[in-house]
């Protein structure tokens, strides 16, 4: 069922005492053909986590512990497990792009500025699809562009001749070039205008329905994830603080940080009233507070929060995980954190 | 209307001449960055300008701050006409202060926060012995207390949210009457944005600051603005009070903008969306309505004649031919929901 399983994953920057713990004991499951959203602010470790298990992390970043397994579906329908952390460079080269591909935030810096777009497609197809001749590669590139709603004439352009939205579409088309089973989107729409973002998100959604790849979508925009993702994990200071289905997470958050994040977006409807959001500043990874990393900003912080770090535990019976002492029976859960989950909205 | 405006702009226009095209087909082209924009900033009121990148909203702010000289149009400060085309007097800069998007880029990184703030005061003629009290006053207005904890740090030692408060403090310390905030929260972390927005709002409400809030985030405009203007390709296409504009948008572009905002509470917005061809986006029409190439409810007249601003309700204007006969807001929204032409 799962295409990716990450267990107890930790990443540090630097060595020994000076190390900054950027990702701490993270578990992640991506179900085949589903969308997993990772929400978090800058410094929460969401990108570092992805670079860690895709082995793209550079020194001084080090994977300090844990495992990551990619379950590759072979053409004959059998599954093969690949231990991503143990894989050799050669094995990685086989997996990258053809099984896992990644779309980064800045499409301008991801494309070679002195090459025409066609060259980018041609190169990857030549290496990974050696059976195709020049004309077949060109035809495939045109087909891929068409998938993301661009005309063939874009192939002969240079990156600077295209708009930001067009460049990001090219990146998506490139990421899908080899029919990967898992596509990672690292803030793909953050630098784009809202109308362009909407078009690209709709397109991604439609492509996923059609092609059936699984997706990890990283963003700081929780409201975008709620529309897009099946399941969402919320990260704070390198840890997962809450994991739930998109609807549950947004309509009935259980972690105070999730609630604060949701309340930080001014609504588009209803009475205009003052919102409070979250006090304080995001946690500094080099100077993490003791106990729960979130306690200095938490309205319900208790004694135990200052001394002991809460473990992620199931809350309710829907597979939701929450790392917060408030759900440990020490006190009554605040009313804001026990809203009931609405029935699935008609779509 | 309430009080008389402090800063008033009449038909501000700015064209830029650029060289376009590559290779052998170079030619001069005129970019109409801002065209015929009028607005009034009044005490205690927040006016929001919403637009996507390239809509001209930042050029507008820079003209109001007199960093960019208008091609034509008038500016009135405190009821008196401002002589454009001359060097900006120091006093104008003191009364009209601009806060920019990226606080890290707008502070001198090799000097303490204290130095950055003192410079602004010294330039505007504050005596050295008054500096400490003025700095403390400004820092407490933006809720950075105790001030010394922040003043004696370097910009990189503060978080984005704190530094943006410092840059607002720097604008406030010379006691301006007008605050121009150009995307003040778009670079900040989600969880600290709201605090800065609340600060901008409270400066207007509690300290009578006339405020211009420029943003691409229409929800935040709804949250803090008394009046909202939507810009498209250098022109104001719709204006109304903040809530009305978003709850009852009249102009097709505003409707497209609102439908594009991720809104988890409204799943129907997904299907009612208008798709626009990316190619059409590049071309802004030279004649007729500038939005016509992307407009889902375009008519014959839109391609040949530019629409003026029509009143659709009290204090609500839309620059769209569909509103020629007054209240045709319904017609547009119906047209926008029927079929989406993927041109």
CATH class group of the largest domain in chain B = Alpha Beta
H/E element string of chain B?
A: EEEHEEHEHHHHEHEHEEHHHEEH
Number of helices of chain A: 11
Distance between the termini of chain A: 26 Å
Q: What percentage of amino acids of chain B are in beta strands?
A: 15-25%
Largest sheet of chain A: 8 strands, mixed
By CATH, the architecture of the largest domain in chain A is named 3-Layer(aba) Sandwich
Class per helix and strand makeup of chain A: alpha/beta
Supply the number of structural domains of chain B.
2
Estimate the global geometry of chain A from the Cα principal axes: globular
Number of DSSP strand runs of chain A: 12
CATH superfamily of the largest domain in chain A: P-loop containing nucleotide triphosphate hydrolases
Radius of gyration of chain A from CA coordinates: 21 Å
Distance between the termini of chain B: 43 Å
Greatest interface (CB-CB under 8 A), with counts per chain: A-B, 48 and 45 residues
Write up what this structure looks like:
The complex is a heterodimer of chains A (about 350) and B (about 350). Chain A is of the alpha/beta class. Chain A folds into two domains: about 1-235, P-loop containing nucleotide triphosphate hydrolases (Rossmann fold, 3-Layer(aba) Sandwich), CATH 3.40.50.300; about 260-265 and about 285-340, no CATH class. Helices cover about 30% and strands about 25% of the residues of chain A. Chain A is built from eleven helices and twelve strands. Chain A has helices at about 45-55, 90-95, 105-110, 115-130, 135-145, 165-175, 195-210, 220-230, 245-250, 255-265, 305, and strands at about 1-15, 20-30, 35-40, 60-75, 80-85, 100-105, 180-185, 215-220, 230-235, 240-245, 315, 320. In chain A, strands 6-7-8-3-9-10-12-11 form an eight-stranded mixed sheet, with helices on both faces. Chain A has a four-stranded antiparallel sheet with strand order 2-1-4-5, covered by helices on one side. In chain A, β4 and β5 (about 80-85) form a beta hairpin. In chain A, α6 packs parallel to α7. The longest helix of chain A is centred in the middle third of the chain and has 18 residues, at about 195-210. Chain A is globular and about 70 Å long. Chain B has helices at about 55-65, 90-95, 115-125, 130-140, 145-150, 160-170, 190-205, 220-225, 240-245, 250-260, 280, 330-335, and strands at about 5-20, 25-40, 45-50, 70-75, 80, 95-100, 180, 210-215, 225-230, 235-240, 310-315, 315-320. Chain B folds into two domains: about 5-245, P-loop containing nucleotide triphosphate hydrolases (Rossmann fold, 3-Layer(aba) Sandwich), CATH 3.40.50; about 250-345, no CATH class. Chain B is built from twelve helices and twelve strands. Chain B is globular, with a radius of gyration of 21 Å. In chain B, about 30% of the residues lie in helices and about 20% in strands. An eight-stranded mixed sheet of chain B has the order 6-7-8-3-9-10-12-11, with helices on both faces. In chain B, strands 2-1-4-5 form a four-stranded antiparallel sheet. Chain B starts with 6 loop residues before the first strand and ends in a 6-residue tail after the last helix. By secondary structure, chain B is of the alpha/beta class. The longest helix of chain B has 18 residues, at about 190-205. At the A-B interface, α6, α7, α8 and α10 of A face α7, α8, α9, α10 and α11 of B.
């Amino acid at each position: 069922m799962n295409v990716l399983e990450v267990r107890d994953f930790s990443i540090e920057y630097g060595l020994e005492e000076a190390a900054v713990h950027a990702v701490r004991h993270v578990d992640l499951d991506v179900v085949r053909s589903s969308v997993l959203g990772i929400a978090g602010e800058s410094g929460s470790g969401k990108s570092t986590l992805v670079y860690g298990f895709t082995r793209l992390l550079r020194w001084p970043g080090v994977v300090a512990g844990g495992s990551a397994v990619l379950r590759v579906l072979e053409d004959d329908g059998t599954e093969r497990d690949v231990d991503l952390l143990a894989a050799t460079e050669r094995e990685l080269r086989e997996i990258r792009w053809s099984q896992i591909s990644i779309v980064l935030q800045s499409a301008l810096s991801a494309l070679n500025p002195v090459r025409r777009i066609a060259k980018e497609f041609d190169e990857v197809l030549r290496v990974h699809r050696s059976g195709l001749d020049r004309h077949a590669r060109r035809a495939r590139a045109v087909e891929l562009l068409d998938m993301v709603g661009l005309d063939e004439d874009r192939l002969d352009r240079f990156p600077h001749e295209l708009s930001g939205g067009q460049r990001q579409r090219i990146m998506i088309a490139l990421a899908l070039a080899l029919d990967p089973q898992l596509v990672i989107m690292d803030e793909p729409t953050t630098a784009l205008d809202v109308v362009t973002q909407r078009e690209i998100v709709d397109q991604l959604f439609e492509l996923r329905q059609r092609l059936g790849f699984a997706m990890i979508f990283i963003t700081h925009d929780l409201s975008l994830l709620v529309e897009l993702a099946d399941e969402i994990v919320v990260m704070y200071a390198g840890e997962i603080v809450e994991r739930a289905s998109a609807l549950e997470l947004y309509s009935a958050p259980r972690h105070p940080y999730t609630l604060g994040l949701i309340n930080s977006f001014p609504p588009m409807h209803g009475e205009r009233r003052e919102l409070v959001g979250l006090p304080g500043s995001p946690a500094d990874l080099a100077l993490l507070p003791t106990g729960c990393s979130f306690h200095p900003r938490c309205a319900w912080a208790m004694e135990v929060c200052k001394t002991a770090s809460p473990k992620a535990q199931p809350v309710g019976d829907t597979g939701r995980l929450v790392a917060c002492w408030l759900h440990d029976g020490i006190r009554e859960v605040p009313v804001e954190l026990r809203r009931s989950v609405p029935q699935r909205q008609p779509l | 209307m309430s009080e008389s405006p402090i800063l008033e702009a009449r038909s501000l226009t700015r064209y830029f001449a650029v060289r376009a095209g590559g290779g052998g087909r170079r030619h001069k082209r005129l970019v109409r960055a801002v065209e015929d924009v009028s607005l009034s900033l009044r005490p205690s009121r927040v006016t929001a300008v919403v637009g996507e990148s390239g809509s001209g909203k930042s050029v507008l702010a820079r003209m109001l701050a007199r960093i960019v000289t208008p091609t034509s149009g008038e500016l009135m400060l405190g009821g008196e006409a401002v002589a454009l085309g001359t060097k900006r007097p120091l006093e104008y800069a003191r009364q009209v202060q601009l806060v920019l998007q990226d606080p890290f880029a707008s502070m001198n990184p090799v000097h303490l926060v204290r130095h950055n703030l003192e410079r602004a005061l010294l330039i505007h003629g504050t005596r050295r012995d008054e500096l400490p009290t003025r700095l403390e006053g400004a820092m407490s207005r933006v809720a950075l207390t105790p001030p010394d904890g922040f003043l004696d740090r370097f910009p990189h030692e503060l978080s984005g949210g704190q530094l943006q408060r410092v840059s607002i403090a720097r604008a406030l310390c010379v006691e301006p009457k007008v605050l121009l905030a150009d995307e003040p929260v778009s670079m900040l972390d989600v969880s600290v944005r709201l605090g800065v927005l609340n600060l901008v709002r409270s400066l207007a409400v509690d300290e009578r600051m006339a405020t211009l809030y420029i943003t691409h985030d229409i929800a935040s405009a709804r949250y803090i603005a008394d009046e909202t203007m939507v810009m498209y390709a250098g022109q104001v296409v719709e204006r109304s009070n903040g809530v009305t504009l978003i709850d009852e948008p009249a102009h097709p572009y505003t409707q497209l903008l609102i439908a594009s905002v991720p809104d988890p509470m409204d799943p129907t917005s997904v299907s009612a969306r208008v798709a626009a061809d990316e190619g059409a986006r590049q071309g802004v029409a030279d004649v007729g309505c500038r939005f016509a190439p992307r407009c889902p409810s375009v008519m014959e007249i839109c391609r040949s004649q530019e629409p003026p601003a029509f009143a659709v309700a009290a204090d609500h204007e839309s620059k769209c031919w569909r509103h020629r006969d007054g209240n045709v807001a319904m017609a547009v929204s119906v047209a926008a929901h029927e079929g989406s032409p993927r041109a």
